[in-house]
């Protein structure tokens, strides 16, 4: 039972982790010649700060087709979303689908490069003309639930005010893919629609948007390096460097299709799921460790019990069994135990996967019928585990000599043999793995606690963020919304502006300060807000004054870090200085605020400006500070209900989306929270498996030393002395494991912490607590058997003497 339970836990973990890892490693593997397909991406450098963009300049596609050699196919497309879709029905009011995302402007070249199964229409003609659209089968069934695919052709789909005709239906991809588009509007539609054409920016070499995507397929003998060089020559030709941009760079790179799913710098489309190869490989290491623990248990317990089968082996050899036959027999036994463990794992895996549903990507499932590779993996696992776990015990068992067996010498030197040394070594490895997991879990939890409780330089509690619809940014409606919110008694104050102090968005520009002797050009982060922005977030003003409405075009605030970059040791010295700001506009520094984190603790604090703007896109977020809750605790719910009512009156066609700011901050550390959860599970399982093995060894040891214990008790040994005698050797192994694992864990923790610009310390108590915890768990496990053996009546053990 110990063998089967230990193995089944290890195999379950390995199976679930395999399903997760295999899911991410199988994205977009179905396209023909995928190794020749690349996305063109853009890398920027502003004042030493590097930025990445998965898009390109609008005119690049046409230039590549005309001027770059070695490229077989040039496939531009433009991603869009947030459109309302209208479908005519039998009533006067069309059916409306709000804010549809994953829409794309594309043409026939898209379907030539990427493989889709066509259910209706033709890839050659479906997107040749303006105002045509191709739908995926799932989306088509949403728009036209009662029609067959062929009957959908010719139907009208209206995107906001743009009427299109359905000319094709493609099968929704069943394979894992990052290309989750479901409405393909013909690219030429944008060329015939002024508003859409402006978005494409087909003549703007100096402007880049991530929505403007370009894929290329290289010719058979083309070199990616050579093509990349040609792209950058093309950029310099059409957009030569300007004097004022000295030190700034813009470079095109070719990103392989198989990197699309794993590159967080360039991302994929519309913020789709990207995976970390480091995390995936880390998961595989965890799976390997847990599987190793189960296998070590098997080897330990099987070799420990070998002596009990000595007579069986001696008789079999005497009757003519060869060593090969005996090895096959013992490997077969191992195979059966492993098979039972695998069956348990197969039944348990779907439930285990559900435990991690909150942070595993959508679409992951343990589907044995439709994923043949999972069954192949399980078969391989059975064979590998059977060989790893069974080969050495089979070798030991089949090596007994019949003569020694029948002379009762099979047990000679049991505690001093090579088998005993191997058992001790494997047990030590078990506790190294278990203690490593404990130490890692404690450190990750400590860093998360540090990040969530650190003073970030602003208030984050009791603040709600609400952004008005970007399609309805009417200034009059916004003012009415503000005035009505001001009447809600639970609201303390509010500010209108852009992103909150710390957010996932980055808005930056360049600014230059000239002091007569030198010129300091800096990349500056920007936060937009009114005169209440500092008050809502309790951002401290170190020197000068707050911004006012009159400052929108001539004055700003900077943070203390920026003041230091400009050479001012005292914040007050920066007041009144003028910056050449954003296209040489003169902006006066009227105040210096204390530093606050603009992103998570992964990123260092950067030079920052806080300013007012008349730009409606940076002036659409309401930052609402709530009053403290009274004893009943329902004040905030009432406030939200009142806000929702006002919203529905003024923006009836849009959903009321709000968020508590402190919850948004917590989301910065989702990856770390998930890592902590996985490590907690891995730690629990590793300790459990290790203690199972320890229990098995303790049972074997006490059984082997039953008569010795009886003699010691007759001679006056106490229960405590007997327990100490039986436990000492195993406790020393745990201590040895602690000594070995501590420097390894310290090194691994340091490497993990390097990703944080601001991090907690690796405290000594993490290691002490880990060692003490493992020791207590081991003592508790051993006590079941050692105390039982120590209190046993010695008469029973010595009766046969």
Automatic annotation (TrEMBL):
Cellular location(s): Cell membrane
Coarse class of the protein's main subcellular location: membrane
Cross-referenced InterPro entries: ABC3_permease_C (IPR003838), MacB_PCD (IPR025857), Macrolide_Exporter_MacB (IPR050250)
Membrane topology: Multi-pass membrane protein
Keywords assigned by UniProt, alphabetized: Cell membrane, Membrane, Transmembrane, Transmembrane helix
Domain MacB-like periplasmic core as annotated: residue spans: 2-232, 437-611
Domain ABC3 transporter permease C-terminal: 285-400, 684-790
TM region(s), chain numbering: 280-301, 326-352, 372-400, 421-444, 678-702, 714-742, 762-782
Name this polypeptide is given: ABC transporter permease
